[in-house]
């Protein structure tokens, strides 16, 4: 099985390293300087030249570049081609709009770091994490199985299956909204000189504030409606606390905090199930 | 030096354990059941009966209870009495409003856990953390030095000094606002079934969501204006992202994300200094 990984950034680079750890070689495709580094570090077997050679292709590029890569190139007939973008509906629609010979599988590795690029690639990045496989009625079961099996080889702890709509709704909330909140949170002038004035809450709240603005604008713009739904909901929730505080209504404030605590406890119970 | 700790919850209990680890015994004051537990576990030397016996008193109670404790009891003349509340201006004002024989020092240990109570007390809770000492022109330097020295014995990594206004402004932002955001964040219906759909961002964002609503209402209500300032600022910042997304204005969205990333990088630089 010939495997190629297009895009050797943090995710693609970590995939090639994780596969190598499992004894599975892959070829890589990227800019010349990235390829030189990948070859020099023995991360990839070869630089991929002819995409028609590959049975499995992982596309680890940002959304717009991934769509171009998937729709402007030809692949071996029946090849399993999987993109790893953080939004799935937009990619799925773009791929479905064009006739194709390959078997498309959308996936999303639930792992990352606050740093990017091949130099931060890490063979153990996916250890224990979820791999989400996004399926629709055109998904080939054998192709999805191939990606699931390779995911296990890469160290993923479990493989979850859902459709792109469910995926995009969950991700808008668990990841995309969190990045917006974190990015907005640091902007208060009070942040300067915060050192010493935190026990960890501030660091957790702002760990992911430093987003790559081009990549994340691309991701957000491919999932606009679902992010807007969550963002408006959160702004409206925060408005409730603002009103209770501003009215000096401690009873209302306590009720708001209690509802949040109970919800958090319910989520923690779900986690333990 | 006789030391008493009033309130043997997570913070007071951890203080008595941390002092004990440093070879310093303290007596405790709390409800009978808590005292029994503390005695049985050898956390305290004795249950404190007569407050006049003590040279140093730590008041580890929620704000309203701390104010009552500080203003309704008598202490040895010249005793160092320090409260550890998360808000300082309101306590300082309440203490200053009454004539007193003791030397008051406001302090705030920058450490905590998502759990509370004596059973979660931990001798190493303060290891490497900041202890904030809040000073004003009535603060006795020798009393502040006593608390600073005991803080070092408890394992604190550094002692920071500021006035209550500065403290309350910083804490409104680094801690109190973070608890509100986290508490509000979990309320989206999308949170149900989040398992598998996160790589850690969601967990970090919501780690502190499960606040004790009575304690935190008490804390918030003692620092209302400063929290309102930060909360309104954040709601207004989030509104900017909402407008950019809703207008499909990717340029504006990218500029917002870029500003947040640059600010985060600046804060990380401050941290390294």
From TrEMBL, chains A, B:
- Prephenate/arogenate dehydrogenase domain boundaries: 1-273
**Per UniProt, what is one Pfam family of this protein?**
PDH_N
Give the pathway annotation. Amino-acid biosynthesis
| Molecular function, one GO term | prephenate dehydrogenase (NADP+) activity
* Superkingdom of origin organism: Bacteria
Supply the alphabetized keyword list.
Oxidoreductase
> Which Gene3D superfamilies does this one have?
6-phosphogluconate dehydrogenase C-terminal like domain (1.10.3660.10), NAD(P)-binding Rossmann-like Domain (3.40.50.720)
Q: Which InterPro entries match?
A: 6-PGluconate_DH-like_C_sf, NAD(P)-bd_dom_sf, PDH_C, PDH_N, Preph/Arog_dehydrog, Prephen_DH
Q: Which GO terms describe its biological process?
A: tyrosine biosynthetic process
Family matches, as PANTHER family = PREPHENATE DEHYDROGENASE (PTHR21363), PREPHENATE DEHYDROGENASE [NADP(+)] (PTHR21363:SF0)
The record's comment on protein family reads: Belongs to the prephenate/arogenate dehydrogenase family.
Q: What is this protein called?
A: Prephenate dehydrogenase/arogenate dehydrogenase family protein
């Amino acid at each position: 099985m010939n495997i190629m990984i297009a895009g050797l950034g943090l995710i693609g680079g970590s995939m090639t390293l994780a596969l190598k750890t499992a004894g599975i070689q892959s070829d890589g495709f990227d800019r010349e300087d990235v390829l030189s580094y990948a070859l020099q570090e023995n991360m990839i077997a070869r630089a991929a030249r002819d995409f028609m050679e590959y049975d499995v292709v992982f596309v680890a590029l940002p959304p717009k570049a991934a769509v171009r890569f998937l729709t402007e190139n030809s692949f071996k007939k029946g090849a399993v081609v999987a993109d790893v973008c953080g939004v799935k509906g937009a990619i799925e629609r773009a791929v479905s709009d064009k006739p194709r010979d390959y078997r498309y599988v959308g996936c999303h590795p639930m792992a990352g770091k606050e740093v990017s690029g091949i130099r931060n690639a890490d063979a153990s990045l996916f250890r224990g994490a979820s791999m989400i496989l996004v399926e629709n009625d055109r998904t080939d079961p054998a192709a999805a199985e191939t990606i699931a099996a390779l995911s296990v080889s890469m160290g993923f702890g479990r493989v979850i299956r859902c459709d792109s709509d469910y995926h995009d709704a969950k991700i808008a909330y668990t990841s995309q909204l969190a990045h917006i909140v974190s990015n907005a949170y640091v902007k208060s002038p009070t942040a300067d000189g915060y050192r010493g004035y935190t026990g960890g809450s501030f660091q957790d709240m702002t760990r992911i504030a430093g987003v790559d603005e081009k990549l994340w604008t691309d991701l957000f713009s491919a999932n606009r409606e679902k992010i807007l739904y969550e963002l408006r909901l959160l702004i409206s929730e925060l408005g409730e606390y603002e009103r209770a505080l501003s009215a000096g209504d401690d009873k209302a404030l306590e009720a708001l905090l209690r509802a949040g605590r109970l919800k958090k406890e319910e989520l923690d119970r779900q986690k333990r199930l």
